[in-house]
Amino acid sequence: MKILVVNGGSSSFKCWFHELEEPLPSAAPRPLWQHQVPWHGEQLDSLLAPVLEELWSGAKRVVRGPGEIEAIGHRIVHGGAYRATTRLLPDVRATISRQAEFAPAHNRFELEAIQAVDSLLGPHVPQFAVFDTAFHATLDEAAYVYPVPYAWLGEGVRRYGFHGISYQYAARRAAQLMPADASDSLRLILCHLGNGCSMAAVRDGKSLDTTMGFTPLEGLAMGTRSGSIDPGILIYLLRHRGWSADQLDEVLNRESGLKGLSGLSGDLREVLAAAAGGSRRAQLAFDVYTHYVIRAAGAMLAVLGGVDALVFTGGVGEHTPALRERVGAHFAFLGLEVDAARNESVSGDSDISAPQSKVRMLVIHAEEEWEIARECYRAAKEQPASSGAGY
Question: What local confidence, expressed as pLDDT, does residue 93 receive?
Fold first, then answer.
């Protein structure tokens, strides 16, 4: 099955194409074609059209025409009640539009990308939504219900969790990298660290808890997002400083985290460079960021009742040895020992723990596009013309 993937984020779109056939490999193969498109608010139909046309025209073409594309998969951050990969029929699109309020940096633009693909390829090509929240559908009620008035739950106020597409791949890949005598009920602390950051406690491939909740703002300190803070701060700013909801949204989502603390950037590479140059605020930003990771990992450890491996994925997780080293040192009491040389020179998916370490530390390259393609392949065979809501 020839599948196109459009993975939309707040600042870029990753486009990916491959032909899938049984048996599907567990590790991600090299795609036949891929392209990352920076996005700064332009009309998506005019932005994506010349890129996707490369599939069937020019030197990079891999199909004879758009009619050869058999399915298209889109990453959708928030799907509300939709918790499984679903064909993008009108009712599903309407739900994605309504959820834009809860994932403002993503859903609206992802819906625009769906419409842009409609215009370019026509309505005959089935498109599927692959939801970042779906992996966390296994959370127990105690893990997803907030301690607020119970009536709020009926209004959809609950913990959903995000980065599920990344976690689904990382959990399966981690199981392959673990020693043969690893526990049958593998306990993993998965850390997806990029501009957005979250963590999940996973046992036997199923999510038990995660740091993001109702929106992608909860949890760890991030590139430009605050993560979890005392809600009393917001009440104080509303009541005594005259802040508006829009001001809070702007500051908490785009002016906080590493950027807010360092005063420089939400890019950890720039923050670490400034810290090395003597910037106290940059060093503080890294220290706070790391402290949030360590504290959340401790919480995930308690939920799991132990851990077999800490897994780092995402741009920061894969490329920041100093962060992994510091986290490893804090969990030395578990018998975790990080191999310094392996940590500094990671190549591909790797086990960077010392041979004698009682807990493994793994680095796994994020492969969201491949996981979306796998989900799209499965869904295209199961639901060629139907949609399905519910848990």
Answer: 87
User: Hey, which residues are catalytic here?
Assistant: 132
Tokens of 382: 């199961």
pLDDT digits (tens, 9 = 90+) for 40-83: 777 888 888 999 999 999 888 999 999 999 999 999 888 777 88
Name the more confident of 78 and 209: 209
Please give, one letter per residue, the 3-state secondary structure of the chain: CEEEEEEECCCEEEEEEEECCCCCCCCCCCCCEEEEEECCCCCHHHHHHHHHHHHCCCCCCCCCCHHHCCEEEEEECCCCCECCCEECCHHHHHHHHHHHHCCCCCHHHHHHHHHHHHHHHCCCCCEEEEECCHHHHHCCHHHHCCCCCCHHHHCCCCCCCCCHHHHHHHHHHHHHHCCCCCCCCCEEEEEEECCCEEEEEEECCEEEEECCCCCCCCCCCCCCCCCCCCHHHHHHHHHHCCCCHHHHHHHHHHCCHHHHHHCCCCCHHHHHHHHHCCCHHHHHHHHHHHHHHHHHHHHHHHHHCCCCEEEEEHHHHHHCHHHHHHHHHHCHHHCECECHHHHHCCCCCEECECCCCCEEEEECCCCHHHHHHHHHHHHHHHCCCCCCCEC
Q: Report the pLDDT averaged over residues 324-338.
A: 98
CB 210 within 8 A of CB 136: yes
The token pair at 155 is 């209004």
